[in-house]
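Handout, page 2. Input:
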Amino acid sequence: MGGRAGVVLLSSLLLCSMLAGCFGDDDSDQKELIDLVVHYDATNGTIQQSFIGGSQISFTGVTFSFDFARTTSDYGLKTFTLDPGDGRSIISIDASESASIDVEYQIHGMYAVILAATDINDNTANMTVVLRVEHSIEWSEANSADPDTMEINTTPGNEDSNPKQVVVASVVENPSILTAPGSPVTVTWDLTDPESNSKGSNTEQIPDGQSGTWDFDLNFPDKGVHDLAVTIDQGTDRVNINHIIDILYEQEESEPNPYQQENESEEENSESE
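Output:
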């Protein structure tokens, strides 16, 4: 009886050991079902916007491209997805039809983009890439006796991010008039925050035929609409105005991961040796 019990016990132990081995293999396989490889050439860019006489004449957003072509799976791949990180819906494409996703941003900010691949068994692998989107605005106004106020919106597209700086580079020109003698003008620049508090100002007298400049950096601006105003304090001449405004962020974006041909990689390795 004892011999039979021993055989039964040994068989049970062997069976448990085999099952444990199977379970262990399943866990290790699970981790490597999808090898998520995504290539992207850039992780930062600048929105370009231009105004003439207070009217917008051009606007160019920033587009980033992500290439999933070298992602592999133990099973067939079903979808590739991208979460823009700004509240918009997830972008999803059929992996059998395409392997590239483009996403455009029209509002500055720092964005944590989630890239993912899903196979036919609904296994998923994902990764996060941080993007930096800045904004440059050019504002021009000619022959003005009462310059318009320029609005600068520092609210990012992702509420968790904050601009590092608003950089103002402004030129006011007092052009000469050929048919009449000119006179100097005195102008004041003033940058105010969303609560109408002055954050910086400058006053300068500009002789006839010359120009005055104001360069100013506003660090860690409040979110909201700031106003940049130019006032003619003294003089009757009309002026030309050109503002260039840059809304900047900390350079904390992910490193680019461009695709490199194998022969290019081999050449680089041989050169480094």
